[in-house]
Design brief:
Elements lengths: L2 H6 L8 H4 L7 E4 L2 E9 L9 H15 L4 E7 L9 E3 L10 H9 L10 H14 L7 E8 L14 H9 L3 E5 L4 H6 L3 H4 L5 E2 L4 H15 L3 E10 L4 E8 L1
Parallel strand pairs: 2-3, 2-5, 5-6, 6-7
Antiparallel strand pairs: 1-8, 3-4, 8-9
Helix pairs in contact: 3-4, 3-9
Length: 247
């Protein structure tokens, strides 16, 4: 039910900024015209074993070369002290850029010296992305790729809250991960945030496959029309969700 309908009936509403700008009273229609790739990187010292800078350079280079006008955003998390929580790593003073040289410079300066990897930090990164990137109704098509040292012993299995998956799918955002888990293992662990968003898990040797699938996904969505609403999802929590669909 739309938020305005519930307000009229006297229901209490927690107004979250990521939702209330979109279709509170009437659904908002738009056309997806702006492709964006968000790269979320664990800065744990465990990530070093994946050769992360090589992976990141390949991601940004192949994404920019493979798709016209795609913007790339870097989100880092799991570093030392105050840099452990996820944050947007500005690129020459910008949140997103299409400039490959600036991206490569930012990646070259990264230091993977954070504490031992904890899967809950990746869950926090996904929550951060869901909270800060919610502009499908403004014509932005988004794919996320996580680079993290997930393993069978240290995975997000059982840590992902259901409402987080709904918030991500409600924005039509695709989520992928490059880690030590194959797609088969991710599926076996029930990490449905990937399959439910048409994304999947890849190994470090599959970077080109990862980017190729992301470019294909975004290219297929650019030019499509969407209809987004701000919906009241959980009456017991007065929680709001943006719900977008293709039309």
């Amino acid at each position: 039910m739309l938020v305005a309908d519930l307000q009229y009936k006297g229901f209490p509403i927690n107004k979250y900024s990521y939702c209330t700008s979109c279709g509170m009273e009437d659904p908002v229609s738009s056309e997806l015209t702006k492709p964006r790739v968000i790269v979320a990187i664990s800065m744990s010292n465990d990530t070093v074993a994946m050769n992360p800078k090589v992976i990141l350079h390949k991601i940004v280079q192949q994404a920019i070369e493979g798709m016209e006008n795609v913007e790339v955003t870097l989100v880092t998390y799991g570093a030392n002290d105050e840099f452990y929580p996820p944050y947007i790593r500005t690129i020459n003073g910008r949140v997103s850029t299409t400039d490959l040289s600036d991206l490569e410079t930012s990646i070259s300066q990264m230091q993977f010296t954070g504490p031992s990897y904890d899967s809950s930090s990746t869950v926090s990164a996904l929550e951060f992305i869901a909270e800060n990137f919610h502009d499908c109704h403004k014509g932005v098509a988004t794919s996320v790729v996580i680079v993290a040292p997930e393993t069978m012993k240290q995975s997000m299995a059982g840590l992902l809250p259901g409402n987080l998956v709904l918030r991500i799918t409600g924005e039509l955002t695709q989520v992928n991960m490059i880690s030590m888990l194959s797609n088969q293992l991710c599926t076996g662990f029930g990490l449905d945030v990937f399959s439910h968003t048409t994304g999947q898990c890849y190994l470090p040797s599959q970077v080109s496959n990862t980017v190729g699938d992301i470019v294909q996904h975004l290219s297929g969505n650019i030019g499509r029309s969407t209809l987004c609403s701000c919906m009241y999802a959980y009456p017991s929590e007065a929680a709001l969700l943006t719900t977008c669909r293709f039309i």
